[in-house]
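Tutorial handout. Part one gives the primary structure; part two gives the three-dimensional structure as tokens.
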Amino acid sequence: MYLRKHARIKDGKSHTYWSLMETVRTDDGPRQRLLCYLGELNSSRMKSWRKVIKVFNDEGEEEQLELFPSETPAEDPTGRNIVRVDLRSIRLERAREFGAVYLALEIWRRLKLDKFFSGTIDRIPASVDGRDIDIPWSKIASVLAINRLCDPGSELSIEEKWYKSTALADVLDIPEDKINTDRLYRCLDHLITCKDDLEKHLKVRYGELFEIKYDIILYDLTSTYFEGTANGNPQARRGYSRDHRSDCKQVVIALVVSEEGFPLTYEVFDGNTVDVTTLEEIIGIIEKKYGKAGRIWIFDRGIVSEDNLKLLRRKKAQYLVGTRREQLKDYEQELLSGNWEKVRKDVEVKLIPDKKEGETYILCRAGGRNLKEKAMRETASSKLDKQLARLAHRIEKGRLKNIIKIERRIGAILGKYSSISDFYDVSLKNGKLTVFIDEKKKEWIKAKEGAYLLRTNIRESDPKLLWEKYMQLTEAESSFRALKSELVIRPIFHQKKERVWAHIMVAFLGYALWVTIKHTLKRTLPDYSPARALSILQRIHSGDVILQTVESDNQSKRTIRLRRIFSPDNEQKMILSALKISLPDRLSFDLISKCSADLFNKG
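Part two.
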């Protein structure tokens, strides 16, 4: 780190400016990066080289100082309070991550979550263990949500490490020693009391910011597992794990989002809940909160059952859903015939009206999916053939003679490759293993590779439009990916049921910030994901530039602390502009004894 001197001639006068620089390594070699701009500290004329800052003396009294480099005579006939600064002693202290947390806080305020929580949980007496505290719960809630978005961690890690590494103490005006696990845990307990009101608030705010409508809603479920036994939580059960952690107890999370991915509501179910049993309860929750307005429900085949579809028809709701692959057999002729309509380069569809139920089926075939399933079939077939050949060799050599063991071994091999075992007929005749392949069944399996079937009661004759609507379900899947990967909702370490609910609610708040950033960037920087933008903005830091004054006849030697936000580079400026975020001109913070502070930032 070093000072760089900039000379400029303006109106025939010489001006000298100073900036704080650092050398960084890049792919193109070492480069110099601007940390912050210190401005004009000296010039040939008295009026132009004064640098006035606001400082506090050891007694905490405010005074004005005008700074000069030590090489400049500090004679001032006006009697101003002038000090000389030794530029060789400059150093940087208290570096903090600023850019990402400031963005998160601005999005928090853009969603008016600060006002929402001020009107809800701030009404709860602010005390811990009977002791009154001076930090509003709404600010603690913002710390939890910002951490979940920027650097997900436990409440203990927030207290011990994360909060102290960020500039939130400055922008939220919460000293570092005020953030502890007691306050964080108590805030979790208060958050879950306003879940329904929060969902309604966000629905309104999304409509104001992005004109989001919930005529089409996407419904999907996922699971998240526990570390530990979670014996105190009756919802923690073992069930089908999307995380491939069947060894752990889990809960099931149901999420309803708009077609753009904005959340409408979420619910937490027991870990052994079957997807298909949840729809009726979710419909009841949606109708209770938002009325019985006509909506189009889109969900995948795991939630589809005849009872669920009858329920939707009874409520005069529309639906567009996936179906189980076995149902493709009913449309074998249509699958093998022509008249497909291309909707994308590698996707084609076909409309199949069903007059009995007043429904329409959409037969779809995707080239990429076809290649994937073909490769999987060929790999499985090759492995199956090899294992059957080894078994046949053992039988021929007399190493395996027991008929019961041979039949068990055949069953085990075919069971391992159940996706292709239908067209294999394996039997033992005259002490030899014979393998017969049913070519007709094999051709059918090949024909349905890459194919899937949709089902709807929407009156629409264009299969392309129906397919495009169903593809919006990827937004719900994207929501779960964000919750699990970027917002790290798993694993859950909390043991109490209410704390688990609160943990999921904090993740929901983090997702609210995430999806707002996503759609704000989508307008002007569609190639930048929220994760990428946050990672780039994390490089913007704040820090204290420490200047040492030179002792003189009327001034003792003292230290001046200039708290600055480092200057963003061009890419960071582009992202901030796209998000409509302006970095502040100054940072306010609690002033301490024997610490001077410059409240102005020119960078």
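Part three, for discussion. The first strand starts at residue 2 and ends at 10. Confidence is low (pLDDT under 50) at residues 42-52, 74-79, 589-603.
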